[in-house]
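Internal ticket #5521
Category: modeling
Description: The requester needs a full-assembly model to guide mutagenesis choices. All entity lines are attached below as received. Residue total reported by intake: 252.
Assigned to: D.W.
Attached entities:
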Amino acid sequence: MIDSTKKQANILGCYIDLVNMQEAVESIGNIIANGVPGQIVTLNAEIIYRARQEYELQQIINSARLVTPDGIGVVWAARSLGYQIKERVTGIDLLNRLCELAAQKGWSIYLLGAAPGVAAAAGEKLIQQYPRLNISGIHDGYFSENEQDGIIEQIKALAPDILCVALGAPRQEYWIKENMARLGVPVCIGVGGSFDVISGIKERAPEFMIKMNLEWLYRLVKEPTRIKRQLALPRFALQVLKHKYLARGRDR
Ligand code: UDP
């Protein structure tokens, strides 16, 4: 939601909250306390680029309760455009931190998405890590239109505090937007391929690559078919630079 009281960066028409991990989880805690359903987007450069062509996607991002900077492309763009940005807040890191807090605070979590068995395996790993975590329900992400109503009714009945949706971006963002009011879950967050990594079926980049902001390169090497998606990145960078120099020209 575009909110003048919040510190936000406008990157090619998408508004990103200039939050670090701590501020993001505090904001999510407030959403849970408040109880009004809100969508959380962890936004990367690919999706910002796509939203330039898909107005509905841009609307979804700009009406989300919290949009975090997911990925070095977003951090670079925000800094290039003169915003003070502290760190990346990725979907998987946010999910891990939320599970840690949920275990302490008694928030319940529902895991929706990924291939059959993967969300359950991710759930087991999370419980090993945070034994007091309450995972109230799990469903894979390969359901038909006919099955969808039943899944939504199940989630409603279980009334979790947090719904993690791992259908891949931006499908999960569309899905959350469409169903959030009906679900009535305070926090609905898209977490992309996080269940694949937490369950162990996919590996995350080694720590040094994460620290060097080279996670995108690791994913590209492991999954070369991502090249199509990642071609958006240089185009995104060019658009940001164009925007920056046009704005400078106007200021002169
Ligand atoms: N997925 C799903 N249902 C679908 C298509 C995809 O649950 O119909 C899952 C897929 O199994 C994977 C995740 O969505 O766990 C997408 O992962 P990816 O790493 O591609 O996430 P992104 O980079 O798109 O956020």
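Resolution: model delivered.
Comment from assignee: The CA atoms of residues 113 and 141 lie 4 Å apart.
Ticket closed.
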